[in-house]
Every structure is written in structure tokens, then in C-alpha cells.
Amino acid sequence: MTINTSQDAWADAAGQTHRAHEGPARIVSLVPSLTELVCDLGLTDQLVGRTGFCIHPKEALRRVPKVGGTKDVNLERLRELAPTHVIVNIDENRRDCAEEIARFVPHVIVTHPCTPEDNLEVYRLLGGIFGRQAEAAELASDLRAALDEARQTGASLPREKVLYLIWREPWMTVARSTYISATLAAVGWDSWPPEVEPRYPAFEWDAPWLAEVSRVLLSSEPYRFRDRHLAEVEAAAGRPACLVDGEMASWYGSRAAAGLRYLAALRRKLAGLE
User: Fold this and answer.
1) What is d(CA 233, CA 249) in angstroms, rounded to the nearest whole number?
2) Residue 242 contacts by C-beta under 8 Å, 6 or more apart in sequence?
3) Percent of the residues in the chain that have a pLDDT greater than 90, as a whole number
């Protein structure tokens, strides 16, 4: 969560203060969902670097050089691009890498949205730094409307305990402390188990807490669950299962509103309301 400290200065998730940038910036984003946000804020022409996992918007990113992955950034390539700003995330990027980048990049912007609502501050932070307040306000308005729709859907149906799968062999799910879990909760899906560490725990199909789960959701990322996996999971869980677009559940930034609407529609569909 960030705090707006003044009209021309904003604090990021690490507590660092960033002032409004004057003139064109040279931005490198090491966070796929925030690369998309940078473009949706109208800053594509100022984006000079991205990771190989930054794939949206596809056409706009074709010309933008890659600097490795989120966890294995090519620092020499990054240095060559001479960025004024690098955008990182506490969960997706390594701290030691971000600290090394800060040695030669003037501004490293640290983000850490943990709930859909936290995107409002991310919009404000990046919109303020790069002079895109109007675009940020438009995204914020759309997100607030999507949050209202998601909550209305969640309130109209009984809450349901779900198992959200992100990996196979070993089978892995998400803890309540994750952005994914918070997004699911907005539409009335409570990820299970409720109290567990680490944030992305492995489990066995004979775990006692599985008895409380009503439905299994198979994400399309990071593991690419497909139709062929449904029967396997339903047999193992003894519960109905369905596929979920992982980007819609896990990508913060400008995709957050669309993600909430997608999950709300899926919830209504599975309940027989659509």
C-alpha cells in the first residue's frame, strides 16, 4: 500500500518517496501485470525494457527489449538501456536484485498490492510519477465499479470454500495472504485451507481440511491446467472442478477490474444464474 504524501510526491510500498518526473522517462518494468498498466496509462513510448513474461499488450510490446525474467534479470542488459525508472514487486522480484539495480538506476519503484483495492494506490503512484493522473483516475473509477459488482455477486450467493490449484506434481495452492485469495474472496469464494504457510503451499489429496472444500478451481498459470486435467482432479478431490483464467485471478494493475468481472460472471454461471 502506498501513501500520497503531497500533490507531487508519492511513497511506494518500500516507503521511498518519488516525485513527479519531468519530461520523458525511460521505464523498465520487471512486473508483467504492471507492464500492462504502464501501457494502459499511455506510457508505451516511454517503456524501454521488460521481462520475457511481460506479454500484454502483445503488439505494443514487440518493440520493447527484454531483460530476462522476473527472477533472473540481466543486469548488464538493463544497465545498457539506461532507465530512469525501474518498476519492481516485492513478491515477483528478488530483493537483492532490486537493491543492485538501485545502485545504477535513479528511481526503483517498489510495489506490493495484496488485495484488489490496493490497485487504487498503484494507479495513483504511477499516474502521479509519470503525469498520467487522468488515466489513473479513469482506471480507478472502473475498478471501483468492478469491486461493487463483485461484492454484489458475493453477497447474493452463499460463500463457498474452494481449492485453487496453481501447480501439479507437487500439487500446490494459495494461502489467504495472497492477492489471488483476496480476489476470489471478493466474489464469495474463500480459498482453503484458511491458515497456512508458505504462501504457495504443497498438499496431499488426503489432507483432512479438503473435506470442507466445495469446489476446485484449476488455474491456467503458472501451471497450464487444461480440460484433460479436470477428470483427474475431480477423482482425486471428490469435488466438482472447473478451469479458471489465471491472469484474471492473479494479475493486478489495469487487468484487476476485468478480472473481478470475469470471476463474478464465472461464479454466477456455476451457480446457474447465467
Assistant:
1) 20
2) 215, 216, 217, 218, 230, 266, 270
3) 95
Say how far residue 137 (Cα) sits from the centre of its chain.
Answer: 19
Cell numbers of 39, please? 501501457
* Integer Cα distance of 148 and 272 in angstroms: 21
- Which residue positions in the chain have pLDDT lower than 50? 1-5
Residue 197 has what pLDDT?
84
Residue of 274, 216, 219, 214 whose CA lies nearest to 249: 219
Q: Measuring CA to CA, which residue among 104, 30, 90 is closest to residue 66?
A: 30
Radius of gyration of the chain (CA): 19
* Residue 8 pLDDT: 83
- Residues 41/29, Cβ–Cβ less than 8 Å: no
Q: 42-45: list long-range contacts, CB under 8 Å, 24+ apart.
A: 42/132, 42/135, 43/130, 43/132
pLDDT score recorded for residue 5: 45
Alpha-carbon span 150 to 115, nearest angstrom: 13
**Is the pTM here over 0.85, yes or no?**
yes
Query: What would the grid cell of residue 210 be?
Result: 479438503
The C-alpha atoms of residue 61 and residue 57 are separated, in whole angstroms, by: 6
Set of cell numbers at residue 235: 477423482
Helix segments in 82-178, DSSP class H: 95-101, 119-129, 133-156
Q: Which of 207, 153, 201 is nearest to 176 (CA)?
A: 201
67 burial type by CB count under 10 A (0-12 exposed, 13-18 middle, 19+ buried): buried
Q: Any idea which residue has 472502473 for its cell? A: 142
For 45-93, the pLDDT digits (tens) are 999 999 999 999 999 999 999 999 999 999 999 999 999 999 999 999 9
pLDDT at residue 67, rounded to an integer: 98
